[in-house]
Amino acid sequence: MASPNTSESSQSIDVFYPSLDTSEEKITDSSDYDSSASDSESEDGNGEGINIGDGIWTAIMGEDVGPQDIPFIAVPGPKHAHPPQAEPIDYINLFFTDELINLMHLGLDNYFTSPRLFIEHFNSHTPATGTVRKNRKGLPSSLVNAKLQKKEVAARRKNNLLCVAYKDNTRQPILLSTYVKAGFVDTKNSKGKTRNLPNIIVEYNNAMGGADLSDACLYKYLTERYTIKWTHKLAFSLFGLLTKTSASVVHEEIQAANQLEPIIEAPENAAQPGPSPCRLVKLDVGKRRDCAHKHTTRVRSSYQCPACNVGLCP
């Protein structure tokens, strides 16, 4: 059952949480989703007079139906492989050609993304997912101006195009997709901790691969500068990408060499060290010593090594 809305916004906005049933969405005012009061194209932020697909932005009531099935055409070879007759194409002609049919699910950052581009991609049988800037034409104004609380999600759909606003810890990105449904999925981070994230966030991370991670690494040591000539900035940007790539390659080669070095230098019949004869001795009740083992935080132990006379964890 939907819970009362807790988001603070200048206008009512539907919000749902990972802890709730994803088949329902939290609705605060049904009049906000009437056909006469919905986010039509003429009422979208900077969207007046823009023909971005048929229909209007509507709230997702109940389970999201998702985009229509794309009639993919079978392509010989491995998955995502280009057909033999495919020729190189320019990005500017990306959605004016049929050569990308059944080839990929695109992941785009906010520099390229717009509702019009995603509709053209979908009409060319190429689904896409990506972040979008708030000033793009054709976005629902209720999501652009929404003030969400932490971990809140709001979604709108216009036929095959899904628009989602998600408040993370500090940022509130807006994403578009013609590939996924609204909802949540359980994922694990690098530390093995389970997180409940929107489907569109997970698909965006999978589609982008290491592009965002590489940009994040370069941003820490940014070499780009504002210059009068854009060619200078482009040269610095390419230099940073080359440096990042070469550093990654060198790091992998050095790491592999360091792993092989002890194996090569070890004698064939090297004796394995046996167990230590010393046993840990328990201290008197109430006495504890700092553990000599390397920890990120201070650890106190009730045991010590009699030979080394240092505290150790059992």
What does this structure look like?
This protein is of the alpha+beta class. The protein contains 5 helices and 13 strands. The chain folds into 3 domains: 179 residues, no CATH class; 38 residues, no CATH class; 31 residues, no CATH class. 22% of the residues lie in helices and 15% in strands. The strands form 4 sheets. The protein has a 6-stranded mixed β-sheet, with helices on both faces. A 3-stranded antiparallel β-sheet has the order 9-12-13, with no helix packed on it. It has a two-stranded antiparallel ribbon with strand order 7-8. It is elongated and about 80 Å long.
Write the SSE topology:
Elements: E1 58-59, E2 106-108, H1 115-123, E3 128-132, H2 141-144, E4 153-158, E5 161-166, E6 174-177, E7 184-188, E8 194-198, H3 199-208, H4 211-220, H5 230-265, E9 281-282, E10 289-290, E11 300-301, E12 303-305, E13 310-311
Parallel strand pairs: 2-3
Antiparallel strand pairs: 1-4, 3-6, 4-5, 5-6, 7-8, 9-12, 10-11, 12-13
Task: Provide the structure class.
Answer: alpha+beta
**Which strand order spans the largest sheet, edge to edge or round the barrel?**
1-4-5-6-3-2
Amino- and carboxy-terminal Cα gap: 49 Å
Low-confidence stretches: 1-13, 16-52, 71-96
Radius of gyration: 28 Å
Average of the residue pLDDT scores:
68
The domain count comes to 3
Helical content band:
10-25%
The topology string of helices and strands comes to EEHEHEEEEEHHHEEEEE
Say how many strands there are: 13
How much of the sequence lies in strands comes to: 5-15%
Shape: elongated
Helix count from the secondary structure assignment: 5
Largest sheet, if any? Answer: 6 strands, mixed
Oligomer: single chain
